[in-house]
Amino acid sequence: QVQVVESGGGLVQVGGSLRLSCIGKQMTFDDYAMAWFRQAPGKEREGVSCINWSGDSADLVDSVKGRFTVSRDNAQNTLYLQMNSLKPEDTAMYYCAAELTTGCKSDWALGDHVAAWGQGTQVTVSS
């Protein structure tokens, strides 16, 4: 059964940086596009980024473009989200997801094409 496990969340001040990691288990990692989602208290889940199986194509939600970078290391079965210039509105639980496809579908951000979800890692940005 496909499993993904996130790590790297924490408490950081405004303007700081964090790097989230997600390890894929029980899966052939490069058979899957991978995505990051987040959900803040009282808000709907939001798609943050999606990267295709090879890592040469990625999509980011507009609110994080220029600040976040998504990457993957297929040899290490690991997905990353480098988050810089963090803002209070980035505070949320961040979830890793293995997509059902090798590429990112146009509506990936809806979360309707997910094979497996992680349990989440909390990111809190304090002002």
Task: Write up this protein.
- With 127 residues, this protein is an all-beta fold.
- It has no helices and 11 strands.
- The strands form 2 sheets. Strands 2, 4, 5, 6, 9, 10 and 11 form a 7-stranded mixed sheet that branches. Strands 1-3-8-7 form a 4-stranded antiparallel sheet, with no helix packed on it.
- Strand 4 and strand 5 form a beta hairpin.
- The chain is globular, with a radius of gyration of 13 Å.
- The termini are far apart.
- The mean pLDDT is 97.
Question: Which properties best describe this structure?
Answer:
single chain; 127 residues; mainly beta; seven-stranded mixed beta sheet; four-stranded antiparallel beta sheet; 11 strands; 0% helix; globular
Task: Provide the fold topology.
Elements: E1 3-7, E2 10-13, E3 18-25, E4 34-39, E5 46-51, E6 58-60, E7 68-73, E8 78-83, E9 92-99, E10 114-117, E11 121-126
Parallel strand pairs: 2-11
Antiparallel strand pairs: 1-3, 3-8, 4-5, 4-9, 5-6, 7-8, 9-10, 9-11
Number of helices: 0
Strand content: over 45%
Rough outline: globular
Low-confidence stretches: none
Radius of gyration based on Cα positions: 13 Å
Structural class: mainly beta
Q: Major β-sheet, in short?
A: 7 strands, mixed
Terminal Cα span: 40 Å
Strand segment count: 11
Fraction of residues in H or I helices:
under 10%
* Average predicted local confidence, pLDDT: 97
- N-to-C SSE string, H for helix and E for strand: EEEEEEEEEEE
